[in-house]
Amino acid sequence: MTENDQGNVPSRQRKRFPGISSRAYEHPADRSALVALRKLSGFDTAFKALSALLPERSLRLLYLSDSVRVSDAQFSHLNDMLRDACYILDLEKVPPMYVTQDPKPNAMCIGLDEPIIVVTTGLVELLDEEEMRAVVGHEVGHALSGHAVYRTVLLFLTNLALKIAWIPLGTVAITAVVTALREWFRKSELSADRAGLLVGQDVRSSMRGLMKIAGGNHLHEMNVDAFLAQADEYEKSGDLRDSVLKILNVLPRSHPFTTVRAAELRKWSESRDFQRIMDGHYPKRSEDKDTSVTDSFRESAGHYADTVRNSKDPLMKLVGDIAGGAGDLAGDLGGRLRNRFGGGPAGDGKGTDGKGPDAKGPEAGGADGTGAGQSEG
Prior knowledge:
The chain is mainly alpha-helical. It contains 15 helices and four strands. It has helices spanning 28-39, 43-50, 56-66, 76-88, 121-126, 129-145, 147-163, 172-200, 203-215, 224-236, 240-250, 258-269, 272-278, 293-310, 314-340; strands at residues 68-69, 97-100, 107-110, 116-120. It has a four-stranded mixed β-sheet with strand order 1-2-4-3, with helices on both faces. α1 runs antiparallel to α14. It starts with 27 loop residues before the first helix and ends in a 37-residue tail after the last helix.
């Protein structure tokens, strides 16, 4: 928690979310995948068996021996932010956090048994206090969602693919798994961005942080609104060839593009879902066991349908037009069949004489209600 010179008093009060479930902020695609995995019988056992093959202990020893562990004595301002983030999201056990020497701005949450958070010196030097608070909240969101496990697997498989690249066809299967994990992880980053906003509770700071990651520490030369305009231009510009190039550009990445992340976060910050959370209405961790896989997949499918329908990307518009055209064709064909075989436009199946129980009253016949206006088609 940020302190002033007068003692342990936060510089500004932030809302806390006791017992909040990660479902409250998870991106629909991320949430449906995680709910399905958590419901699989033996999933935890399988991953614990896999942990024997993963160099988790090696990673922990590496950061312990060659990085700076955040504490009251070292990077105390980061330690305050970390404890504050865990307090706001009600994460009972504060994960260890390390600062490692690397000029590239980056942060990650890894670990199978217990998550650890790692931030680079490049990131610490780049961001101001409020921007860094959002990043710390982002990583705590990963920990609360259980993302650290899958992130560790992705890290391991990516390194393994590099080591066996010389073997003919050796990376084919691993590449397929890594590609699928990266697609999921890009969605998980959108979830963690939301967690960062819940912790920092300052959308402009979150936006500035993303903008600095994209363009460096020249804030006086940048503008958040212009940065967001780039995301809109990126989505709607070009033709089908550009849409394919966008897909190819993002495939090797573990994170979505920064302009896209900023646009997604702004959209969520303006949504009713975000406001409900801020008002204290959100899913609780105690209810996670009752989560319906079907409902989560349905919500995810609805999200993707809305994305395709509202997207300005040429390829997505084409997909939407094709789907819409197919729906119109099916509806038109169904109407013709109902009319041809006597079901009528409502499909009531009364036959061609219209004398079923629904054929009574003025609506069923002519103006005088005698049936003179009934259709034979």
